[in-house]
Amino acid sequence: MPLLYIIFAYYYLGLLLSCFLTGCLFVRKSWSLEYKLLVILSGLTLLAETGAYLYATLRIDGHWVHNLFAPVECVFILYILHRASMRPAIKRLNIVLLVILPAGIGVIYGLHPAVLRIGEFAALFYLFLELTAACSFLIDLVLNKSDTPVGRQPLFWMAAGMLFYCSIFSMELTVMSFIKKIPWQYSVSYAIVANTFMYTGFITCFICLHRANPASRGDSPTYPEVLRP
Q1: Tell me, what DSSP letter sits at residue 9?
Q2: Residue 227 within a domain
Q3: Which residues constitute the domain of residue 112?
Q4: In a domain, 228, yes or no
Q5: Do 227 and 213 contact (CB within 8 A), yes or no?
Q6: pLDDT category, 180, cuts 50, 70, 90?
Q7: What share of the chain is helix, strand, coil (3-state, %, to 5)?
Q8: Distances (CA, A) of 70 to 5, 60, 64, 67, 139
């Protein structure tokens, strides 16, 4: 196994572990469901990626782990952003995306049933849904009349990280569809940058939420608008 791949794997798993531990450390009963789901998603991602890495160290094809986990991750992200959205039009859009997801999965795997192989078409489909949800949520925040600055809205950081994550991986997969034999070092480099954006956004979301929660610091139990379900 190449040294660069091992370094990336440990960096990536360390990033996921930091994200999950940060969420577990800061989580409170007062958090809205979407924030608790984000902590759960972080833990599931850590579990899935650890399993995929163990398969890789044993030289066993573990792509089925990613192929099975990717739609689960997509459902979590779409539902989290749906709950956090404020405008009815954005909420309806997210409902449409959630309805399209299983239909798209059925069509894609009906045409390309090899679940054990890397599913580029399925990955692009999930990335498109997640990118649409992230962009619509950011637009929702910008158009919101709230007195809370956008940068102090916790899920702004998640959505912003997802914007870069989805854009980078979409570009990579599109290039791979035209250039079949792209050097794996380029793929690793793309993955490092994309995942750093995404999970740093998750961590920043947890930290921002912790700072916005007076009860977590022993202050008054009056919660700011950002914690409203």
Answers
A1: H
A2: no
A3: 3-213
A4: no
A5: yes
A6: low
A7: 80, 0, 20
A8: 21, 19, 10, 6, 25
Extract the tokens encoding 41. Answer: 């998603």
- C-alpha of 91 from chain center: 18
Residues in contact with 60: Cβ distance below 8 Å, sequence separation at least 6, in sequence order: none
Overall residue count recorded for the chain in this entry: 229
Domains of the chain: total: 1
Rounded (10°) angle between helices 33-57 and 154-178: 40
Separation between Cα atoms, residue 153 and residue 163, nearest integer Å: 16
Residue 176 lies in a domain: yes
Confidence of residue 113 (pLDDT cuts 50, 70, 90): low
> Do 58 and 35 contact (CB within 8 A), yes or no?
no
d(C-alpha 8, C-alpha 38), whole Å: 24
Cβ atoms of 178 and 131 within 8 Å: the answer is: no
> In the chain, what is the straight-line distance between the N-terminal and C-terminal CA atoms, in Å?
46
Identify the three-state secondary structure at position 133.
helix
pLDDT tops 80 at residue 47: yes
DSSP-assigned letter for residue 214? G
Name the H helices within 3-32: 3-26
- Per-residue pLDDT reduced to its tens digit, 57-102: 887 776 778 888 999 999 999 999 999 999 999 999 999 999 999 9
204 falls within a domain: yes
H-type alpha helices, 149-183: 154-178
Cα(93)–Cα(52) distance, rounded to whole angstroms?
33
Spatial contact of 18 and 202, defined as CB atoms under 8 Å apart = no
State both tokens at 208: 């921002």
